[in-house]
Amino acid sequence: MVNLNLPLKSIPRITPKYVRVLEKLGVFTVKDFLFYFPFRYDDFSQIVSISEDYLNQVITVSGKIIKTKLNRIFRRKMSIVEIIIGTENNIPLKAVWFNQPFILETLKEGVEVRLSGKLILDGKKFSMSSPAWEKSSRDMTNTGRLIPIYPQTSGITSKWIRWQMKMLLEPLGHPMSKWTSDVLIDILPKEIRKKYNLYDIYTTLSQIHFPDSKEKLIRAQKRMAFQEMFLVQLKTIQIKKEFAEKNSTGIKFDEKLIKNFVNHLPFKLTNAQRKASFEILKDLEKPRPMNRLLNGDVGSGKTIVSAISALQTISASYQTTIMAPTEVLARQHFESFCEIFKNYDIKIALLTSSYKLISEPKANQNLKIENLKLIENCKLKIENYTRTIKSTTRSELLTSIQTNEVQLVIGTHALIQKDVKFKNLALIIIDEQHRFGVAQRATLQQNIPRESAQQVPHLLTMTATPIPRTLAIAFFGSLDLSILDEMPKNRKPIITKIITPTGREKVYNFIRSEIKKSPASTREDDRSSTRGGRQVFVILPLIEESLSESMIDVKAVKAEHERLSKIIFPEFKLGLLHGKLKAKEKEAVMKDFSDKKIDILVSTSVVEVGIDIPNATVIIIENSERFGLTQLHQFRGRVGRGKEQSYCFLFTAENSVPTSVPTRIPTRLKILEKTNDGFEISEHDLKLRGPGQFFGNIQSGLPDIAMEHLSNVKLIKFARAEAKNLLENDPKLKEHPLLADALKKFSEKIHLE
Ligand code: ADP
Ligand code: MG
Description:
Elements: H1 16-24, H2 30-34, E1 40-43, E2 58-73, E3 78-87, E4 92-98, H3 103-106, E5 112-118, E6 120-122, E7 125-129, E8 132-135, E9 146-149, H4 158-173, H5 190-195, H6 201-209, H7 214-244, H8 255-263, H9 271-285, E10 291-296, H10 302-315, E11 319-324, H11 327-340, E12 348-351, E13 356-361, H12 378-384, E14 387-391, H13 394-402, E15 408-412, H14 413-419, E16 425-431, H15 438-447, E17 458-462, H16 469-475, E18 480-484, E19 495-499, H17 504-516, E20 535-540, H18 551-568, E21 574-577, H19 583-594, E22 600-604, E23 616-621, H20 629-636, E24 647-651, H21 667-674, H22 678-689, H23 704-708, H24 713-729, H25 737-750
Parallel strand pairs: 4-7, 10-17, 10-18, 11-15, 11-16, 12-15, 16-17, 19-24, 20-22, 20-23, 21-22, 23-24
Antiparallel strand pairs: 1-9, 2-3, 2-5, 3-4, 5-8, 6-7, 12-13, 13-14
This protein binds adenosine-5'-diphosphate (ADP) and magnesium ion.
């Protein structure tokens, strides 16, 4: 008798060599093995009699071996197996395999075989090169059907896996199975399966490994996707419930304060901003920790929404912290908030590894924080009311945070989590959600050092790019959502163009004319300057797919900088930015760019060019086919921040393509020409490239099958409804021990907590 939880090594058929390979893949038990899924299928399901109609198609043919031959080419250390089979309509078929002489041990003259492969003509003879094969006497495992192809690993072939899979799977379907039946019991409750017409687990596994048809395969995959999504939803609802039982500080909504603040902004809030701000302020009032995601496009104005929540919190005498993923972004926030709160008696700290700064209002030192309100006669004051920014030591800074002398702490998340002990932190704001794991976020909220451990701070996370709605519901179901789906009115949509190689010169000319244009007065607070017109970004992708820059990438960006400065734009000032520069150097380049001392900034894609440069109106992205749509859209968001018309030019690889051949522009890039709507773009990207990218470096750990179905809104909805329903009746899953167990394992795997 075999238990499904048995380790694979206890199965004699599977030799230690294979056990080792499988263990490396994370497959330890029989059950693990059954859940080791193919990543694609070869369609060999067409069993036919040979004819010219099938030329160049993948088909399956059966017949008797008439002749076999082994050719060895010693000079090239090669062997070629050649067999001829006679098929049923007496047309011979030749099949050849390279370097697999052992095939002849099985494929002898007179043996009946099935071959699956592409039918070609070799001279005048029908032929197949390296077809899949098996004896006709055997079940169709490797030919004649949809054939599963497993992720490739050295030392293990898909053929071997198919064989083992069949041996393990088949007995489970037998009604008199001696296998312990309790292990392959379905974790999906029967009622749910019935309601949505989902396969039971045995049928699901059989159809995933050995699909009888495409339809059945899809049905089996759907059932797996449903199961995964159901678990995700159970978990997120549980997390949400747990949070709802925790205590937090209720912060009363001070309508006058907020109205006053909003009325003095240099712009009118969009309706979406209003709505989101209101949702957040309402949440803050509750004595339960807020856990909200502010989901919005680049430039949709998330900063001001977060500022409103910070202002409300601080005015109630509590502290707020803003965490950014990089130093540059933290500094940018520091500058923005000093500006936004310039008329308020709020002390703001910047804490990164290079900076320890405190910014405080110069005048009115005696203004009490409790009496915080807009300083009267705002207009007059703005002119002579400045902030003093002083550099301090780390320990001094930490002390002033601990004593509540500083009310707003901005920094990189690593440093804030490590160093800072707050006096009375009530609100955490995280910028750029996707760089944090869902796991990290929840622990952060509960574990950040603070005096009163019972009070969990409210948490507002902001996305760097719009997350597709379905994805947000699926994965961030434990959060409440506020969506900024409306751009400030003063924006002109960015004009985007895909540029073929011949268009490059034209673009360069266009850039010349843009830089020579008279300086744009783009915003009320525009940093005025005397030199230069508009400014330009040039973005280069990483050459190798990796998370950080290699020296090759730095070299490439240096070379492009050189080429542009010496040959193309000798009359302009160019700057260079890449990840291997020191923080201070990066800082200096960005500052020069924002001070308009640089006309064109050449940069690698990993460098955060998040600083707001309203005067930059052109962005060029080289090798744009290397990027995802969402990423391109995000780069594009670097321009279009001022009142002037902005442009984005997408270059595609040209050097590798001979000019006589028309360059194939990836059709997906065309979406960017058509729309500026970040949500629309990210939905497209989700369908094209899957959800992984929206999680940044953090793997969601979800099986590909569930991932593929994430754009299936209905499935997510149903899974969520069923999860809710189940938990209402059985909150601790006491009546569903199997499910509870699966959920525990599942959440360890996908790090939802
Ligand atoms: P993001 O959502 O990408 O963080 P920001 O908050 O940085 O966007 O806002 C981008 C720019 O738009 C900033 O310069 C900000 O001052 C400006 N802005 C924000 N809201 C509005 C609005 N309602 N009307 C006009 N400009 C706005
Ligand atoms: Mg932002």
